[in-house]
Backbone:
């Protein structure tokens, strides 16, 4: 059984993280921004899995379970905020929410 080199796995995780970060900065739709944050969390989870596999430790898989739990909580709170934003503004454009300035 051959394994994937650690550098390739971490490179893939880095590319996924950068794609998610750029997408968060470019997108204006709140739902797409939420999806981009999920891509970034999955990239971090992939990095933990690759590192744990490289050192033959289950710590990476345990951290990935924590990341999945955090992602589920983030989605529930994020979708609630999206519903409230749409209820008040009738749009999902993030620029329309500038009334929240303190």
Residues:
């Amino acid at each position: 059984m051959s394994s994937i080199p650690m550098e390739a796995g971490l490179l893939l995780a880095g590319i996924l993280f950068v794609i998610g970060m750029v997408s968060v900065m470019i997108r204006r739709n709140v739902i797409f921004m939420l999806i981009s944050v999920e891509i970034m969390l999955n990239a971090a989870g992939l990095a933990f899995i690759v590192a744990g596999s490289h050192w033959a430790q289950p710590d990476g898989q345990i951290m990935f379970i924590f990341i999945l739990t955090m992602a589920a909580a983030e989605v529930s709170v994020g979708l609630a905020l999206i519903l409230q934003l749409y209820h008040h503004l009738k749009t999902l454009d993030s620029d329309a929410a500038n009334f929240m300035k303190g």
